[in-house]
Design goal:
By secondary structure, this protein is an alpha/beta fold. The protein has 18 helices and 14 strands.
Length: about 425
C-alpha cells in the first residue's frame, strides 16, 4: 500500500496540472510538484498549512477554494469547473459524509496562460491586471509580441479603467522588468515644476534651487520605463523638449548647458482624446504620433460585462489574503454587482469590494451587505440652513461640490476647465486642493 501511494505521488508530480487536496477546514493535506513550484508558498513544507498561508500571490489570484468549498458542502454541483485568467479550475468533494472528506483542487493552464507562472512572480504586484475577459486577452497577446521591443506605448481610456496597472504589466513583461518603473502624473505637479521634476536642474538654475542641483525622474528611470500619466496635461511649451527625449533619448536639465542621454522606454496614458487636442492646437502633432507607435485602448467596465465576475473573484481573493480573512459571496450579491454599470470602472468596483469585505458581519457576503451603489462616491457637503457660515467656508464648500461633480462627469482637468470656463492650471490646482481624483 505504501509503495502504491509512492507511485501515486510520483505520477501526480509528472502532470502539468496543479493538484491539491484540502481538508474541510481549509488546510492543505497534499499537493503535487506542479502546485508547489507554480502556486505554493516559498518557505518550506506546505502540508497542514491553512489556506491563506499555503500559496504565493499568484495562487490567490487564481484559486477560488473558499467559495467552491462552501458550495460543495451545501450540496452544490458535485464537480465545479470553470475557466479563469487562462486556467481551468476544477473542484470536487471526495469521501462519504460519514468519513473524512477532502476537497480536490485541480488548476490546469490553458494553451496560452493569461498570467505569468511562478518563475516570473517577482515581476508581479497585488495590483496585477485582470486579463481574463475576451477584450483584454487581445491586449495581452499584443503585449507578449512587443515584449522584446522598446517602442513607445500610448494607453487611452476613462478614469479608473486600469491604465496605470496595464503600464506596470507592460513593464513587467518587457526585458526592462528588473529596472526602475518611474511614474509622473502630469496633472498633479504644478506647471512651473514639471520640467524640473522630469529633467532635473543644475545648481543655481533658479531662485530656491538646491546648491547641488537635483536629478530628474528621467535619470531616475534610466535603464527602465518612464510612465507619464495624463500626458494630455503636459504643458504645450514643454512638449517640444519631451519630443527630443522621445526621439533622440537626450534632454537638457533646467539651467544646464550640456545635454544628457537617457536609456528609457516611454509609456504614456490619457483619458483625453489626444487627436482632438491636436486639432485644437493643445497638443503637438509630431509628439502625438511619436507616442502612439503602439496604442492600447482600455475599454470601460460597462463594455466588459464578462470581466465583472472574474474581477469580483480576484478582489475577494486579494482582500482575503490582505486582511487574513476567509469570506465568500452569495450568488444573489454577486448578481447585484454584475448588473451595476460601474461608471467609476475597475477602481469603483475595487472600492466597493473592499468596503463590503471589511464591513460585512458574516463569512458569506449577502445582498444586504452591498451599499447603495449609486452612493459609492463621498456624499456632497450637507446644506446648513439657518446657520451663519463664514463666506470663505461657503465658497470652498460650493467649489468642492462643483469640482467633484465636474470630475465625475469629465474626468480630466482640461475638460473641466473648458466646461467651467477657467484655465487648466486653475482646474488642476483646485483638484489638488480638494484632493479630488
Amino acid at each position: 500500500m505504501e509503495q502504491e501511494t509512492s507511485y501515486f505521488k510520483k505520477a501526480l508530480d509528472t502532470i502539468p496540472s496543479a493538484v491539491a487536496f484540502h481538508s474541510l477546514d481549509g488546510r492543505l493535506q497534499f499537493c503535487n510538484l506542479t502546485f508547489q513550484t507554480t502556486f505554493g508558498a516559498a518557505d518550506g513544507n506546505l502540508t497542514g498549512r491553512p489556506y491563506l498561508k499555503a500559496g504565493g500571490p499568484h495562487y490567490y489570484t487564481i484559486s477560488r477554494l473558499p467559495a467552491a468549498a462552501e458550495q460543495l458542502q451545501k450540496g452544490g454541483p458535485a464537480q465545479q469547473t470553470d475557466v479563469y485568467a487562462g486556467y481551468q479550475r476544477t473542484y470536487c468533494l471526495l469521501g462519504e459524509a460519514d468519513q473524512e472528506q477532502l476537497i480536490l483542487e485541480l488548476i490546469t493552464p490553458l494553451a496560452a496562460s493569461a498570467l505569468p507562472l511562478r518563475q516570473e512572480e517577482s515581476r508581479e504586484s497585488p495590483e496585477n491586471m485582470i486579463l481574463s475577459d475576451r477584450r483584454m486577452r487581445g491586449i495581452l497577446e499584443t503585449i507578449r509580441r512587443i515584449s522584446n521591443f522598446d517602442s513607445t506605448v500610448l494607453i487611452s481610456g476613462e478614469s479608473g479603467t486600469g491604465k496605470t496597472m496595464l503600464a506596470k504589466y507592460i513593464h513587467a513583461s518587457s526585458r526592462r522588468a528588473g529596472a526602475p518603473f518611474v511614474t509622473i502624473n502630469c496633472t498633479s505637479i504644478p506647471e512651473n515644476l514639471i520640467e524640473s521634476e522630469l529633467f532635473g536642474y543644475v545648481s543655481g538654475a533658479f531662485t530656491g534651487a538646491g546648491q547641488k542641483g537635483k536629478i530628474g525622474l528621467v535619470e531616475t528611470a534610466n535603464g527602465g520605463t518612464l510612465f507619464l500619466d495624463e500626458i494630455g496635461s503636459l504643458p504645450l511649451g514643454l512638449q517640444g523638449k519631451f519630443l527630443q527625449l522621445v526621439q533622440e533619448k537626450t534632454y537638457l536639465p533646467v539651467g544646464g548647458v550640456k545635454q544628457k542621454t537617457a536609456d528609457v522606454r516611454i509609456i504614456s496614458a490619457t483619458n483625453l482624446e489626444l487627436g482632438k487636442q491636436v486639432e485644437e492646437g493643445l497638443f503637438r502633432e509630431d509628439l502625438y504620433y511619436r507616442l502612439r507607435v503602439i496604442e492600447f485602448h482600455m475599454p470601460p467596465l460597462r463594455e466588459r460585462k464578462d470581466a465583472i465576475e472574474p474581477l469580483i473573484d480576484y478582489f475577494l481573493s486579494y482582500y482575503n489574503q490582505k486582511y487574513q480573512i476567509v469570506k465568500t459571496i452569495s450568488p444573489k450579491a454577486k448578481e447585484i454587482l454584475k448588473r451595476h454599470t460601474w461608471s467609476g470602472n475597475v477602481r469603483e468596483l475595487q472600492y466597493v469590494i473592499e468596503r463590503i469585505m471589511v464591513t460585512s458581519a458574516d463569512s458569506c457576503i449577502q445582498a444586504e451587505d452591498i451599499p447603495p451603489l449609486q452612493s459609492t462616491e463621498p456624499p456632497d457637503e450637507p446644506d446648513r440652513h439657518g446657520e451663519d457660515i463664514p463666506f470663505d467656508q461657503s465658497v470652498e464648500a460650493f467649489e468642492k461640490k462643483l469640482l467633484r461633480r465636474a470630475y465625475q462627469k469629465y474626468g480630466s482637468s482640461y475638460k473641466i476647465a473648458d466646461a467651467l470656463g477657467i484655465s487648466q492650471t486653475k482646474a488642476s490646482r483646485l483638484l489638488r486642493k480638494y484632493d479630488i481624483r
